[in-house]
Specification:
Blueprint lengths: L1 E6 L5 E5 L3 E2 L7 E5 L5 E10 L2 H5 L3 E3 L2 E3 L1 E2 L6 H46 L13 H11 L2 H29 L5 H98 L10 H9 L1
Parallel strand pairs: 2-8
Antiparallel strand pairs: 1-2, 1-5, 3-4, 4-5, 6-7
């Protein structure tokens, strides 16, 4: 609760908390109020209320002079909460800004680091920073960077010439060391070669046949799976149709039974009504009229 007090010494008006009144008195009475400096001052209680804003709108008339209430140095709980929330939000914003600055600094430093890495990677093996980058990675990178296209082409040519020389020497040595000298030996050699070629061709044909068989088996399995799926679908459709037929037949049977029950109820009610009429003495029997009367009745 809050109280609107009139200070007798300074002739001012302000809003204070009810806990500051020592002692707490009713409206219109004088009491001592504990001020923010810790001292007690005499004041008169003008109005009490739980609404602080309402008390701050009240003007006090003192000797013909209207005195508006002075703002109290003690803030309300809502104002304190707002201040705390603002402080927390400002702290969080500061932290976020610091994190963003640090991340930006790291991002700005990345190009420098990459440049350093490239610089160290492209240096030759005889550089002073060889202890930093050692191994096959650096050697491979330096070779790729330092060697030109012409040098690479020359190396390839040398390797190709060396391979051709090796192949020619191998053919010559095989021809010189071979025992195929007589025509008979040459014929047997050609026969063996043809037999080997035939075995290889038969192997390739058998491999092709096996691959064809595998493909044929796979295709047959696919066809069987498709037929099996179609059969299952037909079985499900047939079962669904049978279920619907059973439900329809059951419904028709129930309708027939209901109609028969209604007919029996009507007959029973008719018999009961006739019995009651007989008990009352009302007998209604069909009377056969003569033909003349019936003819006149129809003519009318």
């Amino acid at each position: 609760m809050f109280a609107l007090v009139f200070w007798t010494k300074t002739k001012n008006v302000s809003v204070v908390k009810a806990e500051q009144l020592q002692p707490d008195v009713a409206e219109g009475a004088e009491t001592s109020v504990k001020y923010s400096d810790g001292k007690n001052y005499s004041a008169k209680v003008v109005r009490k209320s739980y609404d602080e804003t309402y008390l701050r709108k009240i003007n006090v008339n003192c000797d013909g002079e209207i005195i508006p209430p002075k703002k109290s140095k003690i803030k309300s709980l809502a104002a304190e909460e707002k201040v705390l929330l603002k402080e927390k939000s400002s702290e969080t914003k500061k932290k976020q800004m610091k994190v963003a600055e640090i991340s930006n600094q790291h991002l700005l430093q990345l190009p420098n680091v990459l440049n350093d890495l490239n610089k160290y990677g492209t240096e030759s093996e005889s550089s002073d920073d060889e202890n930093l980058f050692q191994g096959a990675v650096k050697r491979k990178r330096t070779l790729c960077v330092e060697s030109s296209d012409e040098e690479i082409e020359e190396k390839r040519k040398k390797i190709g010439e060396g391979n051709e020389d090796c192949i020619e020497n191998l053919h010559n040595s095989l021809y010189e060391e071979s025992d195929v000298e007589s025509p008979k030996d040459q014929l047997s050699y050609s026969l063996n070669k043809s037999s080997v070629d035939g075995v290889q061709s038969s192997d390739s044909e058998s491999h092709d046949e096996s691959s064809d068989d595998e493909r044929r088996k796979i295709e047959e399995e696919r066809i069987q799976d498709r037929e099996r799926a179609e059969q299952q679908l037909q079985v499900r459709e047939r079962a669904e149709q049978q279920r619907q037929d059973r439900e329809r037949a059951e419904q028709q049977r129930q309708n027939r039974e209901r109609a028969e029950q209604q007919r029996q109820d009507r007959e029973r009610a008719e018999q009961l009504r006739e019995r009651e009429d007989r008990e009352r003495g009302i007998i209604i029997e069909p009377v056969a009229l003569p033909l003349e009367v019936r003819a006149e009745f129809y003519l009318c």
